[in-house]
Amino acid sequence: MEKARLEALLERLQTTISIDDLQVWAHELRDFFRVTHVFYHTATLKREQIGAFTYSRDWARHYVEKNYLAIDPVLLGAMRRFHPMDWKTLDWSNLAARAFLRDAMEHGLGNQGWTVPIWGPQGEFAVFCLNHQCDDTEWAEFTGRNAKDILVVSHLMHEQALRIINRELTPPSTELSPREREALTHLSVGHSRAAVADILQISENTLRAYIDSARHKLGALNVTHAVALALAKGIITPQGALPKY
Amino acid sequence: MIHFLYADQLSGYPILADTMFLDRAAQFKHRLDWEVTVDDSGREMDQYDVLNPLYIIASAPDGRHAGSVRIMPTLGRIMTNEHFTHLTGGVRIASPLIWECTRFCLAPDAPVGVAAALLAAGTEMGIRFGIEQALGVIYAKTVPIYRRIGVTPDIIGTDGKGRDAISVGLWPMTESARAEISRKSGIPLSVMARWFDASFPRHAMTESAARLAA
């Protein structure tokens, strides 16, 4: 049920065509996770700052005016790391950082956060954050339960933002290796993972790595979506179908 | 003791870091005769060490390196995709849910249990961060060692024969894998959790939270 809702939400993500749209979508994602705020930020190659967020525009403006970019422990921490970070593991020891947090909370941000640093294939950098108001136990439970989904969602949101920024609203054509294509082809005719692994004479974990990689390269949400995209782009052909001459 | 340290944190642990790179030279250059570069001070470092990877390092009681592994996300530059795609079925492995683990190294005099501790720590890390699988390049002959520790890697591909055969494999970073490692190695789950929490400590962010904690 939750999974189906998330899939629907991620399909909706791919229909966003502007940063304003992405901002609306961030609100939908916030409602899905039932957190206080969702925040995505990247800088383009032209050094334009691009953001999609659920907190007030007042806070966004205030953040820029106060030059919080220079002291924000979330951003400074994420820039040197690649692991998803609980905000409590960041360095809040100095007075400026604590004053910044107080100011943020006065502007409606919660006391908890989880940030995924995103390092893209072109060397671009982005951050994705969930922010929430709750106690430590509840936050640890939430992040433990959702760590995987948050990772996947954050990268898909980044890819969509890139498409919007680069005005490439149909995903670019993707090169898949023969093994990835074989895996998707066998899945497309309804074979189970176990059967496909058997046919390809690989383990199910290897198959999972192939599918995961293909899914990521296609910008797909899940296996079904990856198969549909690969078919639509002609990367794989429906088995048994006549070639199109 | 287990440390999770990024390359940019190693300067705070000079003895640990130096002995790690020296032990890597001992293992990869001198024992295995790989084509690796050793600098003037005898330390083995490569092009990936400068990309600020994360290391999991086991230290001996005297603070020296006992064993280590290097972690990098597969969405960035990684050794497997740049040098070993002939062992992955030609697939460039790239997923936010898969991280690469390379340069798995043990000190020449490493006590028993270091390999298991590193595997346990890595699996704990994967679970905490939401990573599903670890991708690694290993000697095919070391597979039985992993099996003894509790996790059998899935070999995607192998190159060469006999003692020198090299494989690319996948390790699951799941709760059942962690439980199995714990059962086989005797390392309690609570200890794995403590190792992780010691390297990624949570601090009170606000004064009121600090007062509550105190």
UniProtKB/TrEMBL annotation, chain B:
One Pfam family it belongs to? Autoind_synth
Q: What is its EC number?
A: 2.3.1.184
Q: Which residues form the signal peptide?
A: none
Could you confirm whether the keyword Acyltransferase appears in this record? yes
Domain of life of the organism encoding this protein: Bacteria
Q: Which GO terms describe its biological process?
A: quorum sensing; signal transduction
* UniProt key word Disulfide bond: no
PANTHER family reported in the protein's UniProt record? ACYL-HOMOSERINE-LACTONE SYNTHASE, ISOVALERYL-HOMOSERINE LACTONE SYNTHASE
Family membership, please give it. Answer: Belongs to the autoinducer synthase family.
According to UniProt, the name of this protein is: Acyl-homoserine-lactone synthase
User: Which species?
Assistant: Amaricoccus macauensis
